[in-house]
Protein: ABC-type uncharacterized transport system permease subunit
Amino acid sequence: MGFAYTSMDMGIVLHALAAAGYALLTVLAWRAVSSHPEPRAGSAERLGLALVLIVHGLAVQQAMLGDGNLKLGFALGISAALWLGLVVFWAESLWVAIAGLRLWLMPLGVIGTVLPVVFPEGRVIAHADSGWLRVHLAIALAAYSMITIAALHALLMASADRRLHDISASNPPQPRHSARVYARLFDAVPPLLVLERLLFRLIWIGFVLLTLAVISGIVISESLSGTALPLDHKTVFTLLSWLTFGMLLLGRQVRGWRGRIALRWTLVGFAFLLLAYTGTRFVLEFILHR
Structure:
């Protein structure tokens, strides 16, 4: 007896394989932190992440476009965004030592690839044959991913800053095993000034992509409904995120904003963007069943 596999089945299988790959990379990364004084991602680990990213990318492609339609949902949106963000992280890791960040991203990769396995449901987006719609979706996911990485980068900076304050305190923490692992976690992280430059590089790229997403969204909305900016949750929160990052970049240029001010604005802008799509899709799909 044969079995006919649909694109959804293939997407679920590939997502499960990618989750296993991210889990293995998480274990390897933590073992490196626990055993090496200066943990860095070796060439074998980078190659392993590249292979997992290929599997993850195929999983997203099969789940979103495998049956010829354009399908999207809460879990699949998170998976696609994390995939794009991890691709950026992999490319950045070729030039900058950011081993500490991978210890956060690999577990997130596990979660992001398990979600479509647990919640495979999605909806087919109307007018999937529209070229503008596909362009808008690609730009929006790229912007979402870049800003997600920027938010994680901001959290890494906050942790590094807190560790510096702990070290300079009069009563530093006792050298327990967990404290030693925590210290080694940041041994390969660049100085805060380098991290700050990387953060604003990510924010600039994310802001440009988000601007293009807003413009293409206006074109799509105008052509489909005749309304350029419908006052729904997604539009309102997206514009709030765009304004937040625009104000942050303006404040950086005019008033020299940096440090904790920049971190707070980054996380607020990310929260707005998270609510713009993921939050509203979760409410519609799993609470309101719409």
Notes: Residues 1-125 form one domain.
